[in-house]
Structures are given as C-alpha cells and as structure tokens.
Design brief:
homodimer, alpha/beta, Urease, subunit C, domain 1, TIM Barrel, 2 domains, eight-stranded parallel sheet, five-stranded antiparallel sheet, 38% helix
Chain lengths: 384, 384
C-alpha cells in the first residue's frame, strides 16, 4: 500500500506471509517481480454494463439524445441493428478491466421484453469463461422500465432463478411514472428470491430525494439493511444541506450504499461528506464505449482519478480516499470478506509503479502485475 | 486528421506534399513510420506554469488551503524551503509535454518581490535549451498581486524588457482589492511595451463578470482587440444566461480569448456556447505537480478528454471540438500563422494510434511520433 518494500508469499491463492526478503526453503516457489511498485488489493469495478459494450468493435459515433429516455430508445434501436453477441462483448470488456487491475465486477445486465434473457445468458456464458480472471456479480436490470413493459417482472424472475445475485431498477418515477409501483415490484422480487437490490437513480433534486426515501422505507420494512445500493443518486449533490443530511441519516441507518462514477457534467454525491457520515461509497466504470457514452477504459485507477478530480481532492488523504472507494468500497458492497493485502487475504492484487498512493491516482501508469487468486493474469498492462 | 491513409513529405521543416505512396526520387529522404495512426498538428499547451513544477522530484503531499490566497501564501513558503532551480524544472516539464505531443507553450512565470526575476531568468534559460523541442511564449505573471506589493511593476517592466511576450494579472479585485488599479497598471505596461495581456480571473459570479467588463473597457480603449486573453473566467459558467450573453458579445467584439482547463470541481465557461458565439477558446495544463495541485501530466490529449468529459461532449463533433481547442484554439491565440496539417504548414506534428479523432480523445494512447520542425523529437511516448 506504499509502505516498506517487501516480499509477499502466496499459497493456494492466499497471502500467507509478508516481509522483507522472505526465504522460502521448503518448496520451489515461482517469483513474480513487482519491480518495487505499490501493491494494492485488486480493483473492484462495481457498476459495469458488460453486456452492451462496443469494446473491440470499430469506432461508432455517439448518436443518442441528451435524456435518459432518449438513450434507452436509441440503444434499443442500435441493439437490433448491431446484434453484437453479448457473451463475446462481455468477455472483451472483462479482459480489458483485468488488464487494468480489476478482478471483481458487479455488472448490471439488461433484461427487458425486447432482449428478454439474451444478454443475461450471454453474460452467464462470459462469466464462466473468465472465471479464472475475475468474479462477476450480476444485477438483473430492467433497463426499459418494469411496470410500463408488462412481462418484465417475469423475465426478472427468470434471471434471478438463473443465477442473478441482485435485482435492479431505474428511475421509478420518470421511467415507469409510478415510483411506488416499480419499487414495490423490485423489492417484492428481492424478498421472494432473497437477493440484494441495486437501483439506478438519475432523477434530480427533490424528485430523486423522494425516491431515496421510498427506497429507504422499503429497505426498513423488509429488513434489508446492508443489502441495498443506489447507483448515481445525483440528487444527493443537488438538494440543500438540510435535506441532504436527513437523507444521509437514512442511508446510514439502513446501510444503503451509494455508487458514483463521478460524472463529468452533472452534480453527483459529495463523496467526502457521505464517507464522513458513515455511508459506504463505491464506484464503477458504468457504460464503456456503448450506446450511452463513447468514454471509458474500464480502468478503476482512472476512475479514482476522476473521483478525486471531480471532488477537488488534492491532499494525500483525499487521493487515498478516492483509491479506497475504487478498492475497499466496492469490496464491502460486493461482500468480499477476505479482501486486502494482509496475511490471510485472498491473493487478488495489483502492482502499480509509483511512489505513493497519491502518485498512482495522479499518474495512472500501466499495471506491472495483476494477480488473481495467486496467479499472474496480466503484466505490464496486458492480459496474459 | 483521420482521413485517408497517406504519406507526408517534409522539407526544411515544412509540409511540402501530402498523398498516397509519394515517390521521392530526387533526394534521399529519411522515413518516419507513423504506423497508420492519425496525424494531427502538434498540441498547443497555452497555459502552463513551467517555472514552479515539482516534476521529476519526489512526491510531495499537497499542503495548501482551499482558497487562491491560501495557495499563493503556501507556495511562497514552499518556494523558500525547496529552492528548486526553475530552469531545470521548466526543462523537465517541457520534455514531458513534448513526449505527449506538445511543441508550443504559453507559460506564465512568477514575477514578484520575493523571487524577483529568478524564475523568469530560469525559464529564459530553459527556453533556450529546449529550443529544438518547443517554442515557449512567456507571460510575466504577478502571482502575488501588483499594487499590494510595491516594486512589482518595476519587476514586470524588467521581465518585459528581458523578453516576456505578454504581461499577466490575477484577480484584480480579490488579490489587490483594487481592480481598476491593477488593470490600469497591467494595461499601461502592455501599451508601453507593445505586448499582449493574459489575466488569471478566478473571481466568481458577478465579481468576475465585473472584472471581465473592466478588461473589455481597457481592451477597447487601447485598441488591443485580439491581443487579450482571460484565463479561467469561471464567472462565465456562473452568471445567468442574460448576463453571460452580454459578456460573450463583448468578448466577440474585442476578440478577447478565453482559456479553460476544465477544472474538476467548479463551474467553468460553457465551451460550446462560447465557440458558437465566436469566442476563441484555448486550453492548457495549468499547474502540473506543483504547490497548487498534485494533478497534471502535461498531456493536451488528456486535457481534450477532460474538456469533453466536463462539458458532456459525446458526439464526434463534440470530441473533435475538444481536440480543436487543444490544437487550433491555442495556435490562434499564440499567433501561429503556419499551423496545421496542410501543405505549406510548419511540420509540428503528432501521430496518435487510433481510428478517429473521437477515439483519440477517449483512449489517449501513447504518441507514436512527435515531430518538431520536421524532426522526430519523441517516439512511442518518450522524448528522444
């Protein structure tokens, strides 16, 4: 983590010793040279859309209008035209993410009455293929709404039966025009299948705040403390301080975690305030080169840079906080009990050349090594 | 620029032919392989602070308070403690900038009653040393204020006599508490020495807007149309639309150009609106790893990414606009008449691997070639 130079002994996928010049006489041990870089726990990219990236395809000019509804509609059209195989696309993007040091992913996967379970099945297939590179947690995501598209609940049920670990949602007020209805449907699924919830909430200001409260109500009623996430939650960066503090108190009480990717051109949750209040903050790449955005490199160190840049974090403490969100924040939300660079932790690690944690966030150099369950899976920026 | 694959013939530092598979039989011509990447005019980094970067020094935790005044004071203290040689530091940062594709720089150089002309002399020395890599335009910059530090005007005069091409200024209202006084002093210097003006204006909202108007008044009175720049001008992103449009009309009338580096955590000028109105917008790295900020890589392609990311530019047109600001915008402000990738232009060029201009802004890969006056000065991301 930027401390003293040392060796790390890994056995059976776990860190068993850390120290200076470890001598290991009892067994032949393969050695991976970190070149004196900084050892971090591997990144957790806890908000991706693996199923619909154009990664590896020719450049496609962005063609969507500015609103969430525009983008959903544009994507449905493109999807039909392009017909990219979700399994191949997901695998491509996972490999890119791994090359940048990520070994744990939470991905939302579109489930709607058009694609049905095609994307979900594709991501399941990719998940199996990349098992040795990364662990993937799947959110069954009703991208096109729930109530406004009859048949969606049944498809979500099928995805949950088929292995999705969480159920998603999206702007219950503006997409379905029935916030209570969408949230009741989602939480009902969560209860029946015993899964967590992760809801996209782009809705702004007071409209977003109302829905946060409605999510909190249902979290409390179902005893789902610690199992609900809200992604984006722009409203937390828009409402006045009094309202924001009331909302934070709810999030803390119900252990609702907040995902932000530090968007470039709109308000987003005030990260430091959330953390100081005790809210778990996590992050992710969100869309990477897809119908929603041309941006993205699936690089969580770059994401830490953006979190810091957008939040005005300049001190070492601030830069380390951004890095913490890209590592431990996501690990906490995904529920990785054995995460870190301590003896006993699973050996999911990344080595980045640099002097301090702050230096890494600022410079974002190629990753020297990426280690997954004790095995080197990427070297000098490339998957092996 | 992303068009057809072709060859470019350079002679005596200028582009003399562009075409497919040029045959050059009359003379032995050395060939530099661009690998099929995109040829762009080299970047123009038109707002740097070369004299005070910590580039190449060990990581130094950021230690300044949040206000401009805090940062000025903190920097003065650090400067006395660290005593980094400005010539060496400037040269280091220029080499980094060149490795990322920049060949033209406008740098502000601190001139105040503490450092006197030490930084200025250092940058002059560096400018001479890196002459074959980059052209550097110097702004004599009263970082600590003008009127509030008697003796500053005389130092600025000495810098202008010594070769500074422009005179700078900083927040006349908040730093000197006398906006008319500082602006009169600066414009008087500009008139007497026949130089341009580039003023740092961080002051917010109406306070910034007032000073923009005062700058416009003096630009008109002295007939300095096209020779005045305002750097940052956060106020243009803060005032209401009516006031903003009035200010834009003044900027257009007086050909006052606006520099933004797309700051992470504060409002900044609405780039597209400025461009549509006819304002010249340019950009720069601003501080790179110095007392003001730990951020920065002196990479204008990354700056184009930040301009686009912060402005919500997603279409090809928007991404190309960001790139245009990092190239032609700066070239116009610096006054490069022979800038571009056309026959007759000076051969200051950069080759970046990628498919389209948008792809370059999004992915920002290492530069394949950087060419300065027809000579390869950097290759695969490294100065040679």
């Amino acid at each position: 983590m930027g401390g003293a130079l040392g060796d790390v002994l890994i056995r059976a996928g776990r860190i068993t010793r850390i120290g200076q010049q470890l001598s290991v006489s009892d067994v032949e041990v393969p050695v991976a040279d970190g070149g004196g870089g900084i050892l971090l726990p591997a990144f957790v990219d806890a908000h991706m859309h693996l199923d619909k990236t154009f990664w590896g395809e020719p450049w496609r000019p962005h063609s969507a209008g500015p609103t969430v509804a525009d983008r959903i509609e544009n994507e449905r059209t493109l999807r039909r035209e392009m017909r990219l195989p979700p399994a191949r696309q997901a695998e491509r993007l996972v490999r890119q993410a791994v090359s940048r040091g990520t070994t744990h992913i939470r991905t939302h996967v579109d489930v709607d009455t058009d694609v049905k379970l095609e994307n979900f099945d594709g991501v399941l297939e990719a998940r199996d293929r990349v098992r040795s590179l990364a662990t993937i947690q799947i959110v069954a995501f009703p991208q096109s709404g729930v109530l406004s598209r009859p048949g969606t609940v049944e498809l979500l049920e099928a995805a949950l039966r088929g292995g999705a670990e969480l159920v998603g949602g999206i702007d219950p007020a503006t997409i379905d025009r029935d916030p209570a209805g969408q949230l009741d449907a989602i939480f009902d699924l969560a209860e029946r299948f015993g899964v967590g919830v992760d809801i996209h909430l782009h809705d702004a200001g007071e409209l977003g705040a109302l829905q946060l409260r409605m999510i909190a109500d249902r979290t409390r009623a179902l005893g789902m403390q610690g199992r609900v996430s809200v992604s984006h939650a722009f409203c937390l960066g828009m409402v006045d301080e009094t309202e924001r503090e009331r909302l934070l108190a709810l999030l803390v009480e119900l252990r609702i975690s907040i995902m932000t990717n530090a968007p470039g051109d709109r308000p987003f949750p005030p990260i430091r305030r959330l953390r100081d209040a005790g809210v778990t903050v996590f992050s992710g790449s969100d869309g990477v080169r897809d119908a929603w955005t041309p941006f993205g490199t699936a690089d969580m160190l770059e994401r830490a840079f953006l979190l810091a840049y957008r939040s005005g974090f300049r001190t070492d403490e601030g830069l380390a906080l951004a890095l913490d969100i890209a590592t431990r924040g996501g690990a906490a939300v995904i529920g990785l009990g054995d995460y870190g660079v301590d003896v006993g932790c699973a050996a999911n690690l990344v080595v980045v050349p640099g002097e301090t944690q702050g230096d890494l966030v600022v410079a974002r150099p190629a990753r020297t090594l990426v280690i997954r369950d004790g095995r080197v899976v990427a070297k000098d920026g490339h998957c092996i």
